[in-house]
Amino acid sequence: MPDAGRAPASQDPDVGDVVVTVADVLAAQARLRRYLPPTPLHHAERFGVMLKLENLQRTGSYKVRGALNALLAARERGDRRPVIAASAGNHAQGLAWAAYRLGVQAITVMPHGAPETKIAGVAHWGATVRQHGNSYDEAFAFARELAEQNGYRFLSAFDDPDVIAGQGTVGIEIAPYAPDVVIVPIGGGGLASGVALALKSQGVRVVGAQVEGVDSMIRAMRGDTSPIDPVASLADGVRVKVPGFITRRLCTQLLDDVVTVREAELRETLVRLALEENLIAEGAGALALAAGRRVAGRRKCAVVSGGNIDATVLARLLSEVRPRPPRKPRRRAAEGEPSLALAAPDESPIPLSPAVPHKSRTRRTATAVVEESIW
Questions:
Q1: Nearest-5° angle of CA 228, CA 229, CA 232?
Q2: 100, 102, 139: which is closest to 121 by C-alpha?
Q3: What is the pLDDT of residue 327?
Q4: Contact 178/205 with Cβ under 8 angstroms?
């Protein structure tokens, strides 16, 4: 993709002439492979979707990719300043782990009300935790103020070229599966921008997912940049009032569509993931899968972006939400050659047992059971 990731210079003073390209994503992959093994792809048959399990990533979220790549790139440039970041939780945990591995001082500003499991995860890796404000945007403003006063390097959770390139390595790991569409959750847009940079040259459609009332990116892409407080949502990781300037530019240029889901759909999807696929996801982690029913595609892949959910929240969801029972698989009798069951990538379908001849030597027709997606 020669120029697909090259956006024209923005007029926003926070962006200037910043450019992020596929080459940056490939450079990030070369840096990160020493520290982060690829996360698995899981074939969720009941959903009819492949899942990229970033909930099994270090610190339980894809965010560690961008944070680690930013620290490694800064070290290459000779920048060894302490790093400060604002985060609802996952970026803070990723930064804390990366700083611990590289011996860098890290400070994280988290809003009051951030999940306790995420606050504990940050403290576990030795980063300094400051809680300020009741939203990500209030924490962001305070972190920027501290950075200017103390000479720290401020590391955005999404609007930073090194962070975007690091998140794009998710797309590089998905590429061998050869999907026709990949669905990603959108908060500030770092993951969506990076994945789109990595996959658009492969002819893959990339679709973003947001929640009703937490849709700052889709509004910005339509030209409405007015800051509106996001509503309360299970997807706390994507509750951003103002998306990134760099990411807004890339998402507008590269995304094929952005889908908005209802809060009730998100809650049901999270519970179904736990009960039917034995996978624990946080609200934002289940967002892409919740949007999957609105996205057409034969080989769909949804990114489960994180799994850091408070135990009390998960317990309440499991007790309150009653998912609709999945539709029973349809049985089809094939005349002649038996049809083959759907198989995950790089796996051969299970061969059907040959028909056992009847004593009267009459021929029997082999029958295969095809389990169809409810989507």
A1: 140
A2: 100
A3: 61
A4: no
CA distance linking residue 306 with residue 187, whole number of Å = 13
The token pair that represents 372 in the structure block? 């169809």
Type and span of the H or E element at 202: none
Pairing of strands 128-131, 106-110: parallel
Burial class (CB in 10 A: 0-12, 13-18, 19+), 54: buried
More confident residue, 172 or 119: 172
At 22, list the tokens: 């596929």
One-letter amino acid of 13: P
Residue 214 tokens, joined:
């937490």
Cα separation values, 344 from 41, 47, 106, 203, 371, Å: 9, 13, 41, 20, 13
Q: Residue 352: pLDDT above 60?
A: no
Architecture of the CATH domain 64-154: 3-Layer(aba) Sandwich (3.40)
Residues labelled as active-site residues: 63, 305
| pLDDT > 50? residue 94 | yes
Total Cβ atoms within 10 A of residue 243: 27
Please state, rounded to an integer, the average pLDDT across all residues of the chain: 85
DSSP bridge partners of 49: 44
Q: How much is the pTM?
A: 0.82
Instruction: Measure the CA–CA gap between 134 and 112, rounded to whole angstroms.
Output: 5
3.90.550.10, 3.40.50.1100, 3.30.420.40, 3.40.50.2300: CATH of 22-62+160-320: 3.40.50.1100
Residue that is written with structure tokens 């596929």 in the block: 22
Quote the CA–CA distance of 84 and 101 in Å, as a whole number. Answer: 16
pLDDT at 359 over 50: no
Encoded amino acid at 260, one letter: T
Look at the block and give the residue holding tokens 């989507």. 375
Distance, in Å, from the CA atom of 94 to the CA atom of 142, rounded to the nearest integer, reads 20
Question: Using an 8 Å Cβ cutoff, are 273 and 252 in contact?
Answer: no
Distance (Å, whole) CA 98 – CA 100: 5
Mean pLDDT of 146-166: 96
Per-residue pLDDT band for 113 (boundaries 50, 70, 90) equals confident
